[in-house]
Amino acid sequence: LLVFHNLVHNRNTVLKISSQNIIRFSFQTNATCIKSLLSATCRVTLAKRETVTLIVTTTSDPASINPAAALLAMPGWTAGPILPPDMKSFVNKQTRVIQHDGSIVKEDDLDSWWEEAASIAVDEVIFLSRHTAVSNRPALTVHPIGVLHLKEEESPSSVTPPQGGKPGWAALTSPRIGPWLRLLKKMAEAYSLVPEFEITLEGTHHGPITSKPTMFLENGDTEEYWKRQDAAQVMALVSE
């Protein structure tokens, strides 16, 4: 009834049907209210809302900032606004890179924060980060995020788990995780990182909390490999 009333009494009615698409109805009519829908001439236009991919990096991690530097050295990047508290951003078409100084797994809700600060919707979040494992084997990995392995009683909601997130939570998975895994393998082979580096899809095991489809792209397993410029270049090419 509310939609009917709006269509009848307003010659320009906007209906938001998703976070990305807006339908705008424009009616031209001289009819009375009751006859409006019968005699109106309707023009429908579909406007796509601007959305961006948000790539998150941290200056505290060489396996994050080195791929970011390699990515930002590629053509098309310009400096974006500095967002509080002193967080740099960079722009290239529908992609944004942000750099903060904190822990990559504990800076929660960066996608929501970005949308509010920059007034641009985020459709997915990519984190560039270090990889660690007990094997100490060099690896380039992609993986979704979450801490489904922890139960509430093991880590109360008032306490952030050591690797971020919250017990029982998992982020939506980026639909690009499969294609990026295949591309990561191809680029690693092109740069002769295979078989030295293992190319893997990891399980879900840490934060931070996000509300948009998310994945991590990581390099490890020790400080020696976190600083590898050839691995950083491969990560940048995959993220391009």
TrEMBL record:
Protein name: (rape) hypothetical protein
Gene3D superfamilies, alphabetized: AF0625-like
Record SUPFAM superfamilies: AF0625-like
Molecular functions (GO terms): D-aminoacyl-tRNA deacylase activity; metal ion binding
Upper classification of the organism: Eukaryota, Viridiplantae, Streptophyta, Embryophyta, Tracheophyta
Cited InterPro entries: DtdA
Keywords: Hydrolase, Metal-binding, Zinc
A Pfam family matched in the record: tRNA_deacylase
